[in-house]
Amino acid sequence: MSVSKIQAVISSKCPRCRTGKMFTGTAYGLSRQKMHDHCPHCGFKFEIEPGYFYAAMYVSYALSVGEVLCMALLTAMITKSESPWMYIGVLFTTILIFAPFNYRYSRLILLHYLSPKVSYNPKYAALKK
Ligand SMILES: [Zn+2]
């Protein structure tokens, strides 16, 4: 069974084996989501080097800008408001609502697409635990 890269990102799987889950819980569950230090399936260490996930801030920033722009345009089209307080309220709420999503997917995008040292290896997917 082969999992595509985009399926692995959407289902929060390890970039090396695409089988083990990177996070405990769901992005919007009642319990706080937490990232595993190592892949529970293949043992891959997600934080490749100390401070590696600082780079995820840039990905998170890009995601936030996209979300905020979409919400600003939607707000302008739906309400036709010119009040800055309307936009400040909507955009601040958008940032808060998308924070758990951005936390999770910025790290996933960083590891799956922007880390040249990390690549999928079917040998690890076939490991039996
Ligand atoms: Zn793995």
TrEMBL record:
It comes from the Bacteria. The chain crosses the membrane at residues 52-78, 84-103. This is DUF983 domain-containing protein. It comes from Sphingobacterium zhuxiongii. Keywords: Membrane, Transmembrane, Transmembrane helix.
